Amino acid sequence: MLERYGHGGDLITAEETYGLAKEQFIDFSSNMNPLGSPDCVETILTNTWKELVHYPDPAVRKLRHAIAECYQIPMDSILVGNGAAELIDLTVRFLQPEMTALARPCFSEYDEAVSKIQGKTLDIYLKEENQFELQTSDIVKAADQCDLFFLGHPNNPTGKLISQPVLHSLLDTNQPVVLDEAFIDFVPFEKQVSLMNQAYQSNNLFVIRSMTKFFAIPGIRLGFMIAHPNWIRKIQSLQVQWSVNALAQSIGASVLHDHAYIKRTKNWLVQERSWFESQLSDLGLKVYSSDTNYLLVQLPPSIHVKKLQEQLAHRGILIRDASLFKGLNTSFFRIAIRLREQNEMFISKIKQVFI
Ligand SMILES: Cc1ncc(COP(=O)(O)O)c(C=O)c1O
Predict the structure, then answer these.
(1) Rounded mean pLDDT of 306-329?
(2) Best mutation site among 107, 184, 187, 334 for ligand 1 pocket (most ligand atoms within 8 Å of CB)
């Protein structure tokens, strides 16, 4: 199984399972920016390796300063982590919820974090007939039964942002809310839809961001979170010292200034998403509209996702089996939106499998 370790993007498992070298795969199973990392990443790796004889800045000052400037957020409301994954874990460890409401299907690390502290989860099942969008009624129903909401904005694997009215009802519950905005930087007008600017002024809102998807640097591990400075201090006290390495800190501070790359990415996605969605729909697949850089797709009942995954993998194409997300059945898969040539390759390979 490609998701042996719980996630997509595992090229070593793909090599072992399907017998091709990892360079031979086009990876649609993890949702990375297909433009590759910004040029400054190579420059930093080449020029700053000599600094590895020193410990990284334990207060991550340069990068926190860059984030503060970029998003107009006070520095003491920012905590940088070893990927959003570390911050998910730390936030749950800090909050110690007994019952965490999760909107299914959702990213599996929320469950992992909750189960590590022996917490329980309250399942809110997103409905196909609502296009897998969270509803105000879901929030109202769950609010009395949980002591934490942990939600993706946009959600993975559905690709949907939480609507403004639902966000309002969420904040009205006065329960702690963690919003995972790992993919929000792909959304046009990101700064208007993100709740980062509310988080640092709030007592119960925590926003987690990833830098690894948009800047295509998952190997370096980098994310940050925004919350009230009192909470940031306490969450930081649970973090392992020097958890963000020196190269990650330098890279993070530089990529945020690469406005040309940011613009290129946003332009690519707007064009490519609508093209890819319509090509997939033309094949008779049900494509759920997405606010970000991946698509949730439903197969006709006669095709089992595991079979499709295997047949495509033998042809060098990796997809994410979305039936592994609680709340979805074996007709769902998730794919990243990639460059036109790669997306065309996907369409041609899936046609071979269907015929
Ligand atoms: C929704 C979501 N949040 C967080 C993460 C973790 O991101 P990072 O690479 O920054 O740890 C992922 C990774 O796939 C994800 O899909």
Answers:
(1) 96
(2) 107
